[in-house]
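User: I'm preparing a small set of examples for a lab meeting where we compare how different chains pack in three dimensions. I only have the primary sequence for this one, and I'd like the structure in C-alpha cell form so I can line it up with the others. Please keep the answer compact; I'll paste it straight into my notes.
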Amino acid sequence: MTTKIGLIAGEGKMPVYIAQKAKANGYEVFVAGAKGNARAEDYQTCANVFELFRLGQLGGCIQFFKQHGVTRVVMAGRVQHTSIFSNIMPDLRGAKFLATLKNMQTNYILSRVMDEFKKDGIEFASSALFLEDFMPPAGVLSKRKPTPDEQKVIDFGFQIAKKLAGMDIGLTCVVSQNAVIAVEGMEGTDRCILRAGELVREGAEKKSTVAVVKVARPNQDERYDLPVLGKGTVETLVKAGIEVLAFEAEKTLVLDLEEVVELADKHKICLTAVK
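Assistant: Understood. Below is the C-alpha cell output for the 275-residue chain.
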C-alpha cells in the first residue's frame, strides 16, 4: 500500500522540493495550496491532487485531507503577509477558530491550527521532512572566512537575532559593530536586507563591518517556520552591498546549497553556519 502525505504549501521552492522528494520516495502527495502563494503548475509532476484554499478555510482544508485518507501533513513555504489581509476568507470552522484566538503571534496561531487538525486525526510532521540534507552543520561554507572583526559582529548579531526570534518578531537581523541596523518584520528577510543596505549606504555605518544573521526560534518547533535561505538571499545581499551572511547551523534549511555557495564565492561573500 502506497504511503500518503499531505502538504500545506505556501510560495517558494521548499514545498515543491518536499513534494518532489516525497513522490520520488513512493508517496502519494496531496497538496493544499495557499491561494495567492502556491502555484498549481509547480506541482503538476509531483502531486497526485492539488487544490487551492484561501487563508481561513480551515474546515475545507481539513476535509480535503480526510477525503483523501491523509493522516500526516507537512506545512512549508512562505505566506506573504499581504495575503493575510487580501486573501483571508474563513469558512464556518475557520471563523469559529479565529474567534477563539488570544493573540495573533505566528507560533501561537500555528500551534492552535495544528491542534485543530489533530482533533480530526491529522498529525503534522517536521517541515524539513525529506530535506534533512539541506541543513548544514557548523562551519564556514564559502571560500572567504570571516575576519576577526566580522566574527565579532556575527557573534553580536547572533545574540540579538535569538532575542528577536524568542519574542516572535522575526528570525533575521542586520548588525554592525554593536549596533542593530534592521530587524525582520512582516516584510520578510529580503526586504529587511535591502532596507539595511539603504541605511548603510546613507548613514554612518557605511564604513563599518556589517553582517546579516538568521537563526531559529529558541525551542524551535520543526513542524513550522524553520529558517530558510537560498540563492535569492545571496542575490539580495549583493544588491544591498553586504558581504557577510551567518545562519544557525543544523537548524536552517539552505535550498540549492551548492549553488548558494558558488554564488557566494562569486561575489566574495562570507557564508558561515554558526552553532
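A couple of notes for your slides: The mean pLDDT is 91. The CA atoms of residues 230 and 256 lie 6 Å apart.

User: Perfect, thanks.
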